[in-house]
Fold:
Amino acid sequence: MKNLKVKLARMEKDMSQTELARRIGVTRQTIGMVESGDYNPTLNLCIQICKELGKTLNDLFWEDNDNEMV
Structure:
């Protein structure tokens, strides 16, 4: 399932996938796959993404009431 929450939070910070990836030490492809739902990130990676984007795990990775990540 796509994770549009990560993409929106990244865009709010006016940050490219490449910049976010560089800041947390992964590839741009990893960020793209997280956003597209093609990669299930580790808890550690989720925490790094949250810290960099100034969000909580609940903000970016908690499932909505309809049991889908947005």
